[in-house]
Design goal:
Elements lengths: L1 H14 L8 E8 L5 H20 L5 E8 L9 E7 L2 H6 L4 H8 L5 H14 L1 E13 L11 E8 L5 H21 L5 E9 L9 E7 L2 H9 L7 H11 L3 E14 L1
Antiparallel strand pairs: 1-3, 1-4, 2-3, 2-8, 4-6, 5-7, 5-8, 6-7
Helix pairs in contact: 2-4, 2-5
């Protein structure tokens, strides 16, 4: 399996001349029972220090913890972690020296205590879904994503034959609109992400867009912002573009922890 992932990553790099300029991300969706909320927060506090060392060692670019709304045990997932890379090979193969990061983060912690922390990691949450993604479009700006950042995570499904059209519409039709909102102070950032894994006809989704705001105040001001009237041609293009994808679900995510 590891060899297969390495081969896939090498193919991805060879097919994308600017691969090293992109971001690559692992989204891990967590299910956390109500009675495990405190234990899960302690688990992620433990792991955050390890990710700090992984960033220092150059293994990853960053790591985030997000809470997801709507909440509740019947709403799918309650938390999301995001691990960020600048290299698909590192992402696919979990490259880096984890032991070195662990020892640097907790040099004096006894082995029995470390083992208990790892045991409690699995006990405090169910890592329900892992997705490998590549960033294929992003707005320009200096948004630094402070704690409290709010992101609308839009999970899309696009048929294989519509990939090119959908991505072109997002990049050439919708991204300029989002860029104007960024420039006008109504949005922090916008991203388009494409699934690397899983793939296939039975996958739940194929793309994610993330609309980021510094807080809910900026989000509500964006919703209330009166945008310029669209021409009939612009309306037609938008209607045609919306037909190329199925918005499967939207989570509102709030940034709780961040490592860079």
């Amino acid at each position: 399996m590891k060899k297969l992932l390495i081969i896939m990553a090498l193919i991805l790099v060879s097919n994308t001349g600017t691969a090293q300029d992109k971001l690559y991300l692992i989204f891990e969706f967590m299910k956390v029972d109500n009675e495990q909320e405190q234990a899960y927060m302690e688990t992620e506090a433990f792991w955050k220090e390890i990710h700090v060392q992984r960033v220092k060692n150059g293994d990853i670019l960053g790591w985030d913890l997000w809470s997801l709304q709507p909440g509740g045990e019947d709403q799918g997932y309650q938390y999301l972690t995001v691990t960020i890379y600048n290299d698909p090979l590192k992402m696919m193969t979990s490259a880096g020296d984890f032991e070195a990061a662990l020892k640097a983060a907790y040099p004096d912690m006894p082995e029995d205590d470390l083992n208990e922390k790892f045991y409690n990691t699995g006990k405090s949450r169910d890592l329900a879904k892992r997705i490998y993604l590549e960033q294929i479009a992003v707005t320009k700006g200096d948004f630094e994503m402070p704690l409290g950042t709010v992101a609308a995570i839009n999970i899309m499904k696009v048929s294989q034959e519509d990939y090119s059209t959908y991505e072109q519409n997002e990049s050439e039709l919708f991204m300029p609109m989002h860029q104007k909102e960024v420039d006008d102070g109504f949005m922090g950032n916008w991203n388009l992400l494409r699934y690397i894994l899983p793939t296939g006809s039975d996958v739940y989704a194929t793309h994610i867009t993330a609309d980021m705001y510094k807080d809910y105040d900026q989000l509500f001001k964006s919703w209330a912002n009166e945008r310029p009237a669209l021409s009939e041609d612009e309306i037609r293009k938008i209607e045609d573009a919306l037909k190329t994808r199925d918005l499967k679900y939207r989570y509102m995510a709030t940034l709780l922890r961040k490592v860079r």
